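Quick illustration for those who missed Monday's session on complexes.
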Amino acid sequence: MLIVPSAIPMEIGFECGACGHRQPYTIPTPVCEKCGHDWLDVYYDYERIRRLWPDILRQRPFTMWRYRELLPLRHDDYQISMGEGGTPLLRAKNLGMMLGTPNLFIKDERQNPTNSFKDRQAAMVISMMKEANTTELVVASTGNVAISYSAYTAHAGIKLWTFVPSLVPPEKMREIAIYGSEVVKVTATYDETKKVAARFARHKHILADKGIRNVGTREGMKTLALEIAEQLAEELGPLQPGVPWRAPDWYIQSVSGGMGPVGVDKGYQELYRMGMVDRLPKIAVVQAAGCAPMVNSYEKDLPEAEPVRHPNTQVITIATGFPGPAYSYLYRIAKERGGAFVAVSDDETFRALHVLAKMEGISMEPAAATAFAGLFKLLSKGIIKRDEIVVVNCSGHTFPVEKFLLKPDQIKEVPANLIEPTPAPQAVTPPPTEGLLGALDQLDERVRRIAIIEDNVEAARLLRRILQTRGDFQVVEAHTGKEGLKLIKTTHPDLILLDMMMPDMDGFAVLDHLKDDDALTNIPVIVVTAKELTVPEQRRLQGQIQLLLQKGSFMDDELLQNINTLLEKDKGAKS
Ligand SMILES: *Cc1c(COP(=O)(O)O)cnc(C)c1O
Ligand SMILES: [Zn+2]
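Prediction with zinc ion bound:
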């Protein structure tokens, strides 16, 4: 099975990235109780893990969850896993021969469930959200985060709103919509799209993903470092006795927000502290020349990034003009131990894409190829030495053309004229324009409220998920008959999905109460039951419910169609 049980409960805590203050680990992630900073790192019982791991790891499959003790999820019950991580570390023999680099490796992150390394982040973040009891989330993305989060939220039964800039390729938007996420296409840059998403989330009181400030993001990405260290030791043998794993001399990645390299660095810092590796790798940050705020800022020796306001690159997946706190972090470690920041043109990227496909049989998306174009440049400049151990993150796959054929229900749009111009760096965001808030309001058309009364939590989750794949339902949920009745009285749903067999008060009793209440007697009810009803029971339900469905015998679209028919009929009767 994919779920790796945590054999040993571990003590963990938070450490503030700004002031170093330590505080207990709590869910959901708080801010620093001393200085209020919102960048908290998780620390672990490193000595204990070092002692326990040799025995534990031998018994575990090669997925990112094999490093369970070094991940912050508290309870395995919440683990959302689809086989992410555990990707191959391929030795690039042909390319290595061509470039004269015998120790060139490719971490093949295309082989994750949604074909990019964002699945590490998604698995960790969504598992932690499950643990924090989150049911709905807003995320802004240049494509791959939205795809990955869509898959994992679908798996977890969490509703997802994705905001994507309109330049994201249509096949990626279709991919997002296929998972049942809401797709809001914003005619603006990614950085402006992020602001629209944040405003929508605030306005609707929905949790917004915090990106790199999210503990789960960095802890998920960290597993890349752990895997590479273990795989390199296997490939090359340990470097010295007593130090079991190996760090490469260089980790190379194409970078936008910098989640990958920051997470990887945390991983190596921890392994170094545990005595598992003998060094920390230098990190090479590669960006598209048309949107290279980190590279430009590093060249000017700025400790904080200067944004690029008008990205001009076709490699849209990494077109982040405002890099955020990741840059300062990467700047600092490059100053401490060396590293590189390099920009490549789109032409160089497309060339690298062809080289890798033809020389190694590895087809990748342009955003991944950017890293290889950076490798070529750093080798030719002599910054990377040909005998050094180099790992390049092949971060994502090209999407198959079949996706063009699949039509999602709908992609929503926010018109360009409603997006405000980007404010100057220090300026406060101006108050929201009526127009934009109005448009954001219209994105959420959940006028119909549906109550799920079901004692089996998994069954309730499935029903909720089916309803979530359409934008127009607000779902409320109760897990006992008594609670359900209370919920119906307080929320007055437009329709009820009712289970029959429940402890304390069963479905029949709930129906009897509804019948006796004038305000509730006309709400349509669909009974969803696992039990074969007897003839007297069926007779008892007559006239009280609109539809009887047997669990495990209907598909999502049938249920949705039935619900819509009943709601239409109900609307007709009322008007
Ligand atoms: C997200 C992404 C990147 C950039 O990752 P960051 O570490 O967040 O900068 C690069 N390549 C692909 C394919 C991506 O999806
Ligand atoms: Zn602090």
